[in-house]
Amino acid sequence: MEHVQRLAIIAVLNLIVYYKTLFYGYVGDDVERSERKQEFKNAWHRRWLQFMGLKHINSMVSHFLTIITHTVCCCAIYLALGRNNISFLTAILFSINPINIQGSVWISGRNYVTSSILTLGMFAFPTLSWVFYTATGHFAVNAWFAPLVFLGTKHWYMVFIIPVVWLLSQHNKDTLKRKLWETGGLKTTNTEMRSMKPKKIIPFLKTHLYYFILCIIPFQLGIEHNFLRGFGTNATDNKKGYKLDKYFYAGLTLFLGVSISCIIGILRGHSPLTWGLLWFTVNIAMWCNYITIQQQISERYVYLANIGLMYALASVIVAYPIAITIFITAYLVRLWYVMDMYMNDYWTVEYTLHEMKDMHYMWLMRGVKKWMAKDHQGALYDFNEAYIHKPYDLKILYNLSVACFVLGDTVRAREYLDKAKQNVYDELEVSIKPAFDNLENNIKNVEDSRARGDKMINIDLKDVMIVK
Asked: What one-character-per-residue DSSP string does 189-215 give?
């Protein structure tokens, strides 16, 4: 009966806290998926696509599914991690931790939640681990190394399902190939991101530190993050990423401490603290920029890993009611106000800028939104603001050139375009060359026409594109 009551408390807490998200709209990838043309074979096919996040049909239904999925995950934490005071407190802390917002609120993050539920199923039913582990890959790629958490437990041999499943699963092989080599876009096609070399332990340790602190103290939240932003995409940010600064030494100290505690736990038997740290370290490792799979930093990447860190935290504070009250109150207040960031696509940008005022990419996105609304002067202002924070960014320089050109300032347009060319990095030159050539030709046509004394110059602005 006690277990039922605790599960009811977890469920009611989630429903109360996240109820208002039922009335939220679409954010980021949600927008594209809501507009995606899709033919349904039948009603079940439609429901399955909606659950998988491949097609958003009704925002309220989608948000309801997200609330339910997050609630199930929190209940699974309690059931899979011991059904005791520590696992109950873990479920509560995890439920309201603002760092989990991309899983608890953002529709497009739901697959990371489903994959986490399946991972918890491995530890609730160890003998069926291979089934749950295989299933995780069909939702998200956040559980690739999860079976390693069995190390130091009586089911340690389950770690061997990793190579077996990967050898037998063509889906996993295809996913790995796609994530590392075929992902398109300016963020993920760079050789530096995919390379494996000893010095990449530097950004690895910095990223591990960043995620660790962010999970315990969610000090900065947003759809995008500044930390290591641009690493792998330009020489300047690469230099920053490889710099042996205070973040590296702090990260090294933290990682050594966590690693030593995990090894002791594996060799001598785990305490809740060491097992929670092992869970966090194993499941965050793939996102620590030794190989950058997608974005350099993203909150949805910590959803699974944070289960372990909240378990470790709960084991430390479970005997101290004052500490429990402080963490729960702080997380609740922070979550209640910051979740409005996902109210719609407009507020995502505004709230992220409120959290990180020097976030150049969100200033860029703000300008893009104004550009789409035909507010070219407003877009120029936001592109300039982005330029202040990152004057060497390829996208910012290119968009500034486009904005100046459309507003009639071909001199500045030429200046920014030349700077953008100087900051082209790696194989990105191939992907952006058509846009560059098109803008170059338009600027040259205007310059030539003015040199001839032409008073009327016809330019089709439909051919002038910005990037995001």
From this structure: --HHHH---GGGHHHHHHHHHHHHHHH
What's the one-letter identity of residue 466?
Answer: I
pTM of the model: 0.91
Provide the domain limits for residue 272.
2-347
Identity of the amino acid at 83: R
Using CA atoms, how far apart are residues 227 and 163, in angstroms rounded to an integer? 33
Which residues of the chain are under the pLDDT cut of 50? 184-188
10 Å CB burial of residue 325 (0-12, 13-18, 19+) is: exposed
Does residue 33 sit within a domain? Answer: yes
Q: How far is CA 139 from the centre of its chain?
A: 15
Tell me: do 428 and 335 sit in the same domain.
no
Give per-residue pLDDT as tens, 48-68. 777 777 667 788 989 999 999
- Structural domain contains residue 352: no
Total domains in the fold of the chain: 2
Tokens of 422: 């100087």
- Enter the tokens of residue 63: 């948000």
CB-CB contact of 341 with 351 (8 Å): yes
- Provide the angle, in degrees to the nearest 10, between the axes of the packed helices 376-389 and 360-372: 170
Taken in order 36, 41, 46, 47, the sign of the CA dihedral is: negative
Percent with pLDDT over 90 in the chain = 60
